[in-house]
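Intended use. Records such as the Plexin domain containing 1 entry shown here are meant for training and evaluating sequence-to-structure methods. They are not intended to support clinical decisions.
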Amino acid sequence: MALSVRTLPLRGFLVPRPPTRSQDAPSPRFPLSSAPAPCRHKNEEDNHSYYVSRLYGPSEPHSRELWVDVAEANRSQVKIHTILSNTHRQASRVVLSFDFPFYGHPLRQITIATGGFIFMGDVIHRMLTATQYVAPLMANFNPGYSDNSTVVYFDNGTVFVVQWDHVYLQGWEDKGSFTFQAALHHDGRIVFGYKEIPMSVPEISSSQHPVKTGLSDAFMILNPSPDVPESRRRSIFEYHRIELDPSKVTSMSAVEFTPLPTCLQHRSCDACMSSDLTFNCSWCHVLQRCSSGFDRYRQEWMDYGCAQEAEGRTCEDFQDEDHDSASPDTSFSPYDGDLTTTSSSLFIDSLTTEDDTKLNPYAGGDGLQNNLSPKTKGTPVHLGTIVGIVLAVLLVAAIILAGIYINGHPTSNAALFFIERRPHHWPAMKFRSHPDHSTYAEVEPSGHEKEGFMEAEQC
């Protein structure tokens, strides 16, 4: 199924324009950076196909009940992220103690960013703000500005909370500090809590960093690279986004997202085909999966031809096929060319799906048949390949012997040579600013800490 979308280059990633309204297909009508909010809050409760959002104002008691008081939590379950609390535009991965269902996908790892959001994707890249996020208030926050600013997270096995505590906007420090949090509950609920919002959110500038409040998810597919024919390039397609009205984000307000059923929850063909969901669920018998075709498993859905398989088929048809394939009258010969080629083609496709850098050179046709018949036609081994392997083995052996010698003779000239030139500081991955857009870098914990706070466990 071809996707007619316009895309935005992203250093090897492509992010298309978001849908103009909550739906399960991308829309090519608006650029990602200036798209109108597809899901506006007209009332206190809105249905966004994948979630139902409920807004609670400052005067409603439930907004205070949804706030998780991290200060009163078990101190062993609260972590102050010392790296994020001292840096700007950085992100760090954290492992959850439970599987969190996000758009129907169980996630165990998330990425916390200093800019007031959580990145929910599997692949880390520099444009984390584009899609696949949980953003209570995405903006250009700099926790490193003040010693009182911290990024704290809390996990008690049923809820995971990230709190941006007394953080300041870069270049807008005179406006005051912000304190807000995002809570991920084990049942899939997501809660945004706002304790201190010192200024109107629509007034926050997005010239240096996107300003967003809401949710987003995308799927990733592999496309042939136009520059290198034998390589494949990852492309990210945002299939759903929820944007909240930023004017409703005020001090002591809260937003609760309750997940709605998706096709992925159905585990059988009958349940999938009889589903009354609005996603047009289809059953893929090869993958044993129910899907609309628009989720994070889209690559497999396309590779195994699930969309074509489901056309005009019923669950009884699949059961009849299983019965025929299990019949004792059905014979299989390893020398049957058609069957062998079909099976091998499917196997190679699954391998190239996992390998995002190179395509299998024998992906079909004569090349595949030759690869499957080494007895009839072998691939010649070049002399240069053998020489290269021998040189590589000798180089590795020399390095190992040199290391053993230096370790046993610490006062030798070779040992002193390396000691004098060893680095005195091993930095974590540093952020590189880009004049055109905001970028993030993943960091690793180090021993740096803020005055007045104990160092937390490494993330």
